[in-house]
Design goal:
About 10% of the residues lie in helices and about 30% in strands. It contains 1 helix and 10 strands. The chain has a 3-stranded antiparallel sheet, with no helix packed on it. A 3-stranded antiparallel sheet has the order 9-8-10, covered by helices on one side. A two-stranded parallel ribbon has the order 1-4. It is elongated.
Length: about 140
């Protein structure tokens, strides 16, 4: 059989998954490696909005579990590596007669998604107020 991408199957040889197309393990078959995404990396949909959009942490990202569409969101956009910026989202939740302050720190993408979600919740009548979003800046200290 000619070189091809490993096709997922539920068939095994010992602890190795077999390719649906050729019936061989990843190592013994003539498989083309899919390298679109890096292992141990967070990827997110760049279109924003967040609701229903894809994010993925590749973890060990075993070659037998990779597909040619791993890097594509359900909206059709190509996934991007999640930023390393740190952003602070603050808001208050009504808990009966007391407003409870909340602070969360996320990447820029995740913080923007939460911020947009909180503003949308307010428009729908949820008891939330004083929503803010700001970037945290690391200060380098010389020893």
């Amino acid at each position: 059989m000619t070189a091809h991408y490993f096709e997922f199957s539920t068939n095994w040889l010992g602890t190795d998954r077999l390719c649906k197309a050729c019936g061989l393990t990843y190592e013994t078959g003539d498989h083309i490696e899919i390298t679109t995404l890096k292992p141990m990396t967070n990827y997110v949909c760049p279109t924003g909005g967040g609701y229903g959009h894809k994010s993925i942490y590749t973890g060990a990202y075993r070659p037998t579990l990779r597909t040619l569409r791993d890097h594509i969101c359900i909206c059709g956009a190509e996934m991007v590596e999640e930023d390393k910026e740190r952003w602070l989202v603050t808001f208050e939740l009504d808990q009966g007669s007391v407003w409870h302050p909340v602070e969360t720190v996320h990447s820029k993408h995740a913080a923007q998604q939460q911020h947009e979600g909180l503003l949308a919740a307010i428009k729908q009548g949820e008891p939330i107020r004083n929503v803010t979003l700001r970037q945290l800046v690391e200060v380098s200290r010389d020893s």
